[in-house]
């Protein structure tokens, strides 16, 4: 079979995405199939991607696909290359563009990949959890106070519902990285249960000895690996660490990653007076060395599709403190759940971190649980074979 993966952005670094696509390309090639990749713009890592993919190309029409003629280009390319499957990622405008322009010559079948839960459905769930319906008076007051309106929120969700259900008409299978995403899509009738499958992301197999700690030092290291953007909420982590420093002076915070909110995080560290104890390490393509420096891993996200960095930390034998999100609970199944804390709560987060810092035996027990749980989940090669099985099933349908 010939499969084209279309991704709606060209990340500066290949990273975890590249590890998964490399595994898929290798397994497909070994089994006599072809993986083809398309991104909006060319990057230096195209050469690396081409080691396992049959072709790697830049396709500018991926950006603004509804307006740019994306459907025509994909139909033309797909017909010429005789793709069996077109697998779309990230932007739901991609399948929507195909749905809005039906074509008799379209022979390929469409798969869509959900890497994060839809924000509109998360907001709706949060409103319901607080006993407030989006059309109710209290919701309207809250929206107005925040500069919006209940009507605007309702309209945005209605547009999202319409776009999702329209796009679903041309999608043969949805792939969700977590059960939370699958359940949200089915509950809100964005698709039907038989059309969606849960295939979580995995990690490459780790060589023996890769998870060893760096132990000869006088300080303990709290660490996080996360892109700097609003979702990751570095502000809560910094405030929690500042509270930890009030109890212990022998600790350091290691932050790996880069992004738009990094300047604000640097400013907050200065404001809190903890700048000297925070190491802003920047982006690391392979953060294994950073994981080996850490004694405790923390993720402070507001929401996650899966939280692959939590899985990486577990594989490195790190005890984890994280916000209590459904996707994180799935990833950490078999680990200590008491270390899951409410989002945007620096007091709860600092208490959990301190509990681990002050108990070497608890850290050791959680490290053991984390390694076992991560090992049970399988590898990127297992992930690739699950996708190939999915493609085979889709092509076997009428």
UniProtKB/TrEMBL annotation:
GO MF term (any one): glycosyltransferase activity
One Pfam family cited in the UniProt record for this chain: Glyco_trans_1_4
Protein name: Glycosyltransferase family 4 protein
CDD domains, per database record: GT4_PimA-like (cd03801)
This protein's UniProt keywords: Glycosyltransferase, Transferase
Residue ranges constituting the Glycosyltransferase subfamily 4-like N-terminal domain according to the UniProt record: 14-201
Ranges that cross the membrane: none
InterPro entries noted in UniProt: Glyco_trans_4-like_N
Residue stretches in coiled coil: none
């Amino acid at each position: 079979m010939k499969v084209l993966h279309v991704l709606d952005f060209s990340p500066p670094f290949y990273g975890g995405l590249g590890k998964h696509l490399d595994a898929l390309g290798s397994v497909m090639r070994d089994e006599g199939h072809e993986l083809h990749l398309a991104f909006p713009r060319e990057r230096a890592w195209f050469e690396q991607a081409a080691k396992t993919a049959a072709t790697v190309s830049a396709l500018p029409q991926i950006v603004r696909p509804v307006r740019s003629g994306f459907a025509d280009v994909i139909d033309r390319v797909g017909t010429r290359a005789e793709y069996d499957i077109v697998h779309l990622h990230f932007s739901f405008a991609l399948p929507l563009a195909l749905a809005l322009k039906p074509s008799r010559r379209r022979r390929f079948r469409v798969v869509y990949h959900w890497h994060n839960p839809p924000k509109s459905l998360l907001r709706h769930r949060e409103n319901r959890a607080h006993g407030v319906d989006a059309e109710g008076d209290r919701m309207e007051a809250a929206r107005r106070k925040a500069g919006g309106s209940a009507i605007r929120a309702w309209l945005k969700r209605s547009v999202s519902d319409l776009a999702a259900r329209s796009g679903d008409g041309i999608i043969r299978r949805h792939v969700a990285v977590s059960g939370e995403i699958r359940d949200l899509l089915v509950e809100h009738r964005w698709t039907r249960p038989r059309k969606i499958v849960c295939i979580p992301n995995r990690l490459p197999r780790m060589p023996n000895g890769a998870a060893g700690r760096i132990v000869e030092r006088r300080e303990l290291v709290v660490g996080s690996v996360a892109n700097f953007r609003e979702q990751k909420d570095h502000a809560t982590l910094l405030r929690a660490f500042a509270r930890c420093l009030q109890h212990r002076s022998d600790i350091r915070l290691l932050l790996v990653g880069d992004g738009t909110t990094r300047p604000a995080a640097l400013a907050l560290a200065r404001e809190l007076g903890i700048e000297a104890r925070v190491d802003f390490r920047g982006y690391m393509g392979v953060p294994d060395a950073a994981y080996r420096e850490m004694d405790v891993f923390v993720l402070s996200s507001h929401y996650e599709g899966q939280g692959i960095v939590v899985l990486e930390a577990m594989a490195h034998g790190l005890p984890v403190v994280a916000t209590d999100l459904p996707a994180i609970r799935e990833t950490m199944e078999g680990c200590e759940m008491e270390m899951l804390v409410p989002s945007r709560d620096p007091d709860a987060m600092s208490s959990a971190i301190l509990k681990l810092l002050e108990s070497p035996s608890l850290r050791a027990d959680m490290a053991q649980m984390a390694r076992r749980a991560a090992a049970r989940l399988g590898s990127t090669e297992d992930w690739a074979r699950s996708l190939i099985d999915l493609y085979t099933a889709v092509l076997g349908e009428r």
